[in-house]
Amino acid sequence: MSVLSSIGRIATRYAAARARYRSERILLSLPAELRKDIGFPEIFDARDSRRAATSSAKVI
To answer: Considering the entire predicted model, what is its pTM?
Structure first.
């Protein structure tokens, strides 16, 4: 594994994370009624509950 391939993988992951967070910010800027219509709060809540379950399992 070369240094350049490692840097490329890191850059790819960073770009994907940045795009994901940008999308979340855009969706969160929409009115609540519209977010509810497209199902965004449920998706967002499910992901947070998964994080909470994972982090609570690590604590124990």
So the answer is: 0.56
Q: Is 41 in contact with 35 (CB distance < 8 Å)?
A: yes
pLDDT digits (tens, 9 = 90+) for 6-54: 999 999 999 999 999 999 899 889 898 888 888 876 655 666 666 666 5
7's tokens = 């840097």
Determine how many CB atoms are found less than 10 A away from the CB of residue 32. Answer: 10
> Which tokens in the block code for residue 43?
């998706």
> What proportions of the chain, in percent to the nearest 5, are helix, strand and coil?
90, 0, 10
Q: Are 27 and 40 in contact (CB under 8 A)?
A: yes
Nearest-angstrom CA–CA distance, 42 and 60 = 27
Q: Where are the domains of the chain?
A: 3-59
